[in-house]
Amino acid sequence: MTVEIAMSESNVELALSSSRWKTLGALFGIGLLIGFGLVFLGIVNLILTRYLELEVQIVDWFTLSNAAAQVAVMAPIGIYAAANPLKLKFWLLAASLLLAVAFACLSAAILFKKLFWVAFIGMMLIGISDSMFRASVPMVASAWFSDTSQGKVTGTSYAFLGGGSSLAAIVTIIFLSVKSYQQTVLVAIEAIAVINVAFCGISVILVLLIWRFVQDCPPCPPSRMAAVRVIRYSAQNTSFKESAKRFLRESKILLTDKNSVFAIISYALILATLIVHNLMLPPIIDEGNGHSYQAASKDKTYLLICFSVLGTVGSVASGAAMDRMKTYKPFVFVMASSSVWFSVFMFLGYYKRLESVLYVSIGMYGLLFLSLLPLLVDILKQHARGVHEVTQSIYLVIMWNVLTITLSEIYRVCIAKYGGLSFYVCNVVVCSATFVLLMNINPFLNRYVACDEDESLQ
Predict the structure, then answer these.
(1) d(Cα 171, Cα 275) in Å, to the nearest integer?
(2) CA spacing 20 to 30 A to 146: which of 19, 180, 261, 409?
(3) Cα–Cα distance between 384 and 378 in angstroms, integer?
């Protein structure tokens, strides 16, 4: 009898492990595709602008359409999530399906000049998919993994998002290095379209894999917190009226907690700065000195590789360290203060025309800033107890898009008036403001303490 019980427990654990890694693999795949989609057209922005014969850089309009779509769909997404709080598979399936359609739109828009407006639809869909991905990260961690693995799951998921940016940079370097692509803009445009077609195909394959293999919840909750989560959400009323009321109650809890508000603003500032770096790309030392548009794109892409590769490593490391050390404050202080110093070094590297200092500083800046994102997601999840992960993500999305539009305009106006050096001055100001906000958060890590059902929403 004892042997049979042991074998049964072993089979349950094996089934849980298999389903868990399938779900996590789907999440990682979506993150990689989103990271690529968000950054790739920003990197080849100069080529697209020249191809379309525009005076305004096309990446400005991409950023605006992406942000507008994310903000517009947040309320319907929040109400749907309140009505279906355990529907994890839906978010992964919807995110990957939107990516497939988005890459198809981008391919068609690039191949046919008259249909270029379709590219804005594609960027909107990638933006919505990005929102769903960021909501799914804490959901997967809470539903499928133990309390001692939350940080690693969140950190690694964000690392794959950064990995998508690195992949976009590497692909760009490869096709800009091929001699035939350097001869005419038209040949380069065809290559960009083919790359988008390939990623559309990958997205379709991911949709089919999620449909076949991913589940909403594990057969057996991996932790007490996961079990309480299932019980609480299974018992609630799922009517539209009650879902809307619950969403409003959760919003009140989130926006009346100082730590949660500071975490949301800090996260939004950091992510907005990262997006500005990815889409606008930092000014390079030799820019404007006889560089061709291909050479300028390639040089800026090398900076992006430094930025995103080290950020990917830092994201994984910060999540693992948080799980092991069971604390936030030391990591937040070290990474936030160090990011201020490296933003200063970036300024000095550009001002003194020290290319090696600029590259190293941008890499370390990306490492530190991207490392803070999973920490802030976990801090928010701990302080906003009883608030669904999608509701938390809604306010993150709204805030970071508002700041992305605002900061990108500020950066661009400053560069136009005062030159490339002002880009790095803005970085120092943003990093200093983020440091002040982070130091006013008093985070606690309570996911290791046995949790009871949250009574605050009853």
Answers:
(1) 19
(2) 261
(3) 10
For residues 305 and 43, is the Cβ–Cβ distance under 8 A?
A: no
Return the higher-pLDDT residue of 270 and 325. 270
pLDDT band at 256 (very low <50, low <70, confident <90, very high): confident
Neighbour-count burial for 407-418, b at 16+ CB within 10 Å, e otherwise: bbebbeebbeee
Is residue 317 included in any domain, yes or no?
A: yes
Q: And the tokens for 35?
A: 């990271």
Residue 445 belongs to a domain: no
Residue-by-residue DSSP string for 400-453: HHHHHHHHHHHHHHHHHHH-THHHHHHHHHHHHHHHHHHHT------TTS--PP
**Predicted local confidence at residue 200, as pLDDT:** 94
Shortest CA distance to 86 belongs to which of 296, 229, 185, 279?
229
Tokens of 441: 């958060």
How much is the CA Rg of the chain, to the nearest whole Å?
A: 22
Please check whether residue 453 lies inside any domain of the structure.
no
* pTM: predicted TM-score of the whole model, two decimal places: 0.80
Among 314, 357, 361, smallest CA distance to 342 is for 361
pLDDT (tens digit, 9 = 90+) per residue, 398-448? 888 888 878 877 887 888 788 888 888 888 998 899 888 888 887 766 555
Tokens of 264: 């949301």
- The answer, yes or no, to whether residue 289 has pLDDT greater than 80, is no
What does the H/E/C string look like for 330-378?
HHHHHHHHHHHHHHHHHHHHHHCCCHHHHHHHHHHHHHHHHHHHHHHHH
Measured in degrees and rounded to the nearest 5, phi and psi for residue 420 equal -60, -30
**What is the extent of the structural domain holding 416?**
2-439
Write out pLDDT tens, residues 178-193. 655 555 666 677 778 8
Give per-residue pLDDT as tens, 94-139. 999 999 999 999 888 888 877 778 888 888 898 889 888 888 888 8
Question: What DSSP string runs through 178-241?
Answer: SHHHHH-HHHHHHHHHHHHHHHHHHHHHHHHHHHHH--SS-SS-SSHHHHHHHHHHHTS--SHH
**Residue whose entry in the numeric block shows the structure tokens 């020290």:** 354
Give the CATH number, domain containing residue 269: 1.20.1250.20
Tokens of 76: 């319907």
Return d(Cα 345, Cα 352) in angstroms, integer.
10
| Average pLDDT score over residue span 70-91 | 78
**What is the number of structural domains in the chain?**
1
